UniProtKB/TrEMBL annotation:
InterPro entries: EamA_dom, EmrE-like. This is Transporter. Keywords: Membrane, Transmembrane, Transmembrane helix. GO terms for cellular component: membrane. Residues 7-142 form the EamA domain. It holds the Pfam family EamA. SUPFAM superfamilies: Multidrug resistance efflux transporter EmrE. It comes from Rhizobium leguminosarum bv. trifolii.
Length: 145
C-alpha cells in the first residue's frame, strides 16, 4: 500500500487548496499595489521557499547534471509560469476572485488538450466529458448576469 505522502492525489488536492488560498490572499494583496510589483514580491517569496525546501530535503544537484533538454523546458516552464502569474494578478486586480479563479482554472482544459496534441496522451470519452464539464463550469461560475 502506498504511503499517503507518495500519493499523487493527496499532493494534487493540496495544490488545489493552496491555489485557492493564493487567489484569496492575492486579491487582498493587490488591493493597493501595482499587480506587476505584487507578482515580483510573490516571486521572491516563492524563490526563498523553494530554496529552503531544496536545502531541507537535501535535493540540491549540480546544475551540470541537468540535461540541456531539461534546462530548455524548465526555462520555458518558468517563463510560462511568470507570464501566467502576471496575467493572473492583473486579472485579480481588475475582477472578482470568485470569477477570475475559475477562468484561470481553464488551464485544466488546456492541459488536457495540449497533452493529447503534444504529448500523445489518450483521453477516453468519460475523460473528454469531464474536460467539457470543467470548461462549462468555469464559464458558468465566471458568468455575471
Amino acid at each position: 500500500m502506498k504511503s499517503l505522502l507518495t500519493s499523487w492525489p493527496l499532493w494534487a488536492l493540496l495544490s488545489a487548496g493552496f491555489a485557492a488560498l493564493t487567489a484569496i490572499f492575492a486579491k487582498v494583496g493587490v488591493e493597493n499595489v501595482n499587480s506587476d510589483f505584487a507578482t515580483f514580491i510573490r516571486t521572491i517569496v516563492i524563490l526563498l521557499a523553494a530554496a529552503m525546501m531544496v536545502s531541507i530535503s537535501g535535493s540540491w544537484q549540480a546544475p551540470s547534471s541537468v540535461s540541456s533538454r531539461s534546462w530548455l523546458f524548465l526555462v520555458l516552464s518558468g517563463l510560462a509560469t511568470g507570464a501566467s502569474w502576471i496575467c493572473y494578478f492583473r486579472a485579480l486586480k481588475l475582477g472578482d476572485a470568485a470569477r477570475v479563479a475559475p477562468i484561470d482554472k481553464l488551464s485544466v482544459v488546456f492541459v488536457a488538450v495540449f497533452a493529447v496534441l503534444f504529448l500523445g496522451e489518450r483521453l477516453t470519452l468519460p475523460n473528454w466529458l469531464g474536460v467539457v464539464m470543467i470548461a462549462g463550469g468555469a464559464v458558468l461560475v465566471a458568468y455575471r448576469a
